[in-house]
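1st attempt posting a full record on here, be nice pls
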Amino acid sequence: MSGSVLFDAPGPRTIARHRLYSLLGAAGVVLVVGWVLWRLYDDGQFEASKWEVFITPRYVEVLLVDGLLNTLKMAGVAIAGAVVLGFILGVGKMSEHALVRWPAWAIVELFRAIPVLLLMVFVWYFIGISSPGSSFWAVVIALTLYNGSVLAEVLRAGVNAVPKGQREAAYAIGMRKTQVMNLVLLPQAVKIMLPAIISQCVVALKDTALGQYVLAPGLTKVYKQLYLQFDNRVPTMIVIATIYIVINLLLTMLATWIQKRFVGEKSPIDVSRLGNLDGGRNA
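the predicted structure (as tokens):
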């Protein structure tokens, strides 16, 4: 019988007490949820007239096409741009040349410090409020700048998390710095960074909701149109929130699968096999 060395195993009384705490906590959650549902029912939020719009084909099409599709477009373009920008800034921050390192550091720190909503407003005014598509691109550019700056730090942390022995072994067999970075460090760092990258994708998707304040298309714009027309603010909030939750759960499932598929691999890269990639110049 093996026991943990970190804490003593709970006895029968402690186990019973913990079970009682769990039951009381679960009962408390059920009571709170029940109270909220009762208040909504008492306020008439479950009347059929307030929910009928969500089964009407015309408005379902508006919700899915004008709302969900535009939200996914903004998030997709912003995430793709953030990955590219994050890679450029992350590599720049690790550069040995001060003329490259310091500008990259300044850009990362600047856009990480500015709130996303203010950044959207600044970009919106910079592009031109009356310009076609300015709201869409204000959201995309703002999310790209912010999330790209965050991913730059993720990249730097991922590269630094690779065991130093990998770098030293690569230099020992005569590989150049670019080869060490591209062939040894980055492939291993990407596996470390994947969960953080997917998590940042979730953040970018949720932050598209802020586009409502710069009149950008998306779910939050459709939300405002629906509740103003049908006076069903709470039902519309529930539906829009459910859509966001479902999409984020799908992204979380993707992150879990990627982590198990790639990050879960424990076999290290055999750096000695990379020695022939420099054309045998160091043989």
